[in-house]
UniProtKB/TrEMBL annotation:
SUPFAM superfamilies: Nucleoside diphosphate kinase, NDK (SSF54919). The gene is ndk. This is Nucleoside diphosphate kinase. It is found in: Cytoplasm. Keywords: ATP-binding, Cytoplasm, Kinase, Magnesium, Metal-binding, Nucleotide metabolism, Nucleotide-binding, Phosphoprotein, Transferase. InterPro entries: NDK-like_dom (IPR034907), NDK-like_dom_sf (IPR036850), Nucleoside_diP_kinase (IPR001564).
């Protein structure tokens, strides 16, 4: 099913006994952050994402304005790091993408690793490419609901395949 912006949020499957089973979580949102783009890690990170079985259904190189970053990260507005986060996210281009795979949010969070690269598991994106907790290379949605919201923030329905 698609909502008004065309972001696929769930599938409905009819089981043999005619009950409707809901399957959600096939899409997630990610951003390759300015530090990853600046250091030339985009290709390697995208390869790791594809090798993990994700299909890219939308992707673009873009740059967030101050208003974009303040809006996107509004949940952190009262946190002491908010200003630094906005400055970091607006300092250069990002790669925004919507990824598709069963159990997308959870599997992608595992693939990217802990926010602090020192705590991230070996082989995860953040362990390989992040410099610090502040410059951690990649964003991954933390829930199906946030994946929908974040994807809609960056992409119009006609931009997703």
């Amino acid at each position: 099913m698609c909502n008004s912006i065309g972001f696929e949020i769930e599938y409905l499957i009819f089981a043999p006994n005619l009950k409707i089973i809901k399957m959600s979580g096939i899409r997630t949102f990610t951003m390759l952050k300015p530090d990853a783009v600046e250091k030339g890690h985009v290709g390697a990170i995208l390869e790791q994402i594809a090798s993990a079985g994700f299909r890219i259904v939308a992707m673009k190189l873009t740059q967030m304005t101050q208003t974009d970053a303040e809006t996107f990260y509004a949940v952190h507005k009262e946190r002491p790091f908010f200003g630094e986060l906005v400055e970091y996210m607006t300092r250069g281009p990002i790669v925004a993408a919507i990824l598709e795979k069963e159990n997308a949010v959870e599997d992608f969070r595992t693939l990217i690793g802990a926010t602090n690269p020192e705590d991230a598991a070996e082989g995860t994106i953040r362990k390989l490419y992040a410099a610090s907790i502040g410059e951690n290379a990649v964003h991954g949605s933390d829930s199906d609901e946030n994946a929908q919201i974040e994807g809609a923030f960056h992409f119009a329905g006609r931009e997703m395949f």
